[in-house]
Amino acid sequence: MVQKPDRKNFLEKLNTAVDFFEDNSRNLYNNVIAISHNDADGISSLQIIQNLLHKMNFNYDYFIYNRSVSWANYLSGILPKAQNNKTALIFTDVGSNLTELIPIIKKRKEDFYILDHHEVDDDIDFDMLPENLFFVNPTIFGFDGLDHISGATLAYMFAKKINFATIKQGWLAVIGIAGDSLKSMEKLQSFNKEIYQELVDEEVIYDEEGLILFGRMHDSIKNGLKFSILPFLNGFGGENDQKIKSFLSKLQINPNKKVVDLDKTEIQKIIDNTNLNIGRFALLPQKQGLLKFAFEHALLLNILSFKNISAALSIIQQRTITRYAKEIYFEYVSSLVKNMKILSEDLPRYETEKAIFIDAGNSPIPPSNWSDTASFTTVNGLLKPNKMLFLGGFEKKSQMVKLSIRCSRKYLENNELGVNKVIGVIKENLGGTGGGHKLAGGIRLSLPSFNILKQKVSNYLN
Ligand SMILES: [Mn+2]
Fold this sequence. Notes:
Layout: H1 7-27, E1 31-37, H2 40-55, E2 59-65, H3 71-76, E3 87-92, H4 98-106, E4 111-115, E5 133-136, H5 151-162, H6 170-181, H7 190-201, E6 206-211, H8 221-227, H9 241-250, H10 264-273, E7 278-283, H11 294-307, H12 309-315, H13 323-345, E8 349-351, E9 355-359, H14 367-379, E10 388-395, E11 400-406, H15 409-413, H16 419-430, E12 433-436, E13 440-445, H17 447-455, H18 457-461
Parallel strand pairs: 1-2, 1-3, 3-4, 4-5, 9-10
Antiparallel strand pairs: 6-7, 8-9, 10-11, 11-13, 12-13
Helix pairs in contact: 1-5, 2-5, 2-6, 5-6, 6-7, 6-11, 8-9, 11-12, 11-13, 13-14
The structure holds manganese (II) ion.
């Protein structure tokens, strides 16, 4: 079932897109529209493309797509009334909903470049794509869209082929990787690993080893244990300061010592007394404070993307964090820790053999936190790994049921359909909008559709 990645053909596809874009940039295009996803990976991808377009002296516009409306509705607000073959569109980290996109693209004169790493959930003949579509997606060549290549990695590879100086902005790709993969850096694979190594060698980023307490790497060990979201530490996460301080004083460790300043002996003592581990993490040398830490920087962008997209777009260009962003970050991380506790302990749930529905609709967890609570709960292994998680509920804002769907790699080992495939089946039978990877995705459904899904969930999982 697992296809061996076909590097040669993927790179050929990427090169073809690069060649067409370069040629047409010289001879044809006078305007570019960039469209990207509203998360850390998407914003980093966009920034890489914007930097490239700037260096190429292009006029460009950019838009952020949050998947809450169909592509037809979304693009009708963006595509000019008068068709124009001098305009190119570049999609990054979005655009693999080809069943929706192909009919739109077919009718247009503009060229469309899609650089995406989300799996294609539709049945598409890739030899029959419209001539004005350059579809570059490593997942159709057997690459894993989470472990092997992030959206920003792909945007970086595209941009670097056109302008080698892109390498100086490679830290953006590392933010994308950190935000999407949710892993420490020694676990990177394939293109993610290769470009990471390249950027370390070029000293664009620093790679360090230490205790991994993602979410709070920039802070004291006391706060690290309390607010780490990856791993979430049972017994420390969200507990009171006193409990954590007395644990640390027993180990003779200053609770206010920075996580990154702990020495080898102190780290060993903590490892021996918790289920924590050592790992590698990336630092961004040109940034300060929280923004210096790639994982925390990515997390901040993910948070801001939902709360205040323009703040996200601005902070990626800043050296230091604003007070506003710091407050939002702190509030978010502390509630995520609290939410993981709530979710793993007391929310109403409905379980079948292969699925677990958790109703967050009437919980203290706000809809904007559902997606990340679901992700971090799954990544931290807080629920049974042999079931697909459907976390969500009725969202007043959209008058729809919003679901975050997650599964573990272990779940997929039994040859089960991945999340993106399940979403495809649901959309086909019950409507709705959404998409995702094999491990993570989201869908908005009408209430009646959701009720059918819940009653007959096993029909949609096979
Ligand atoms: Mn992505």
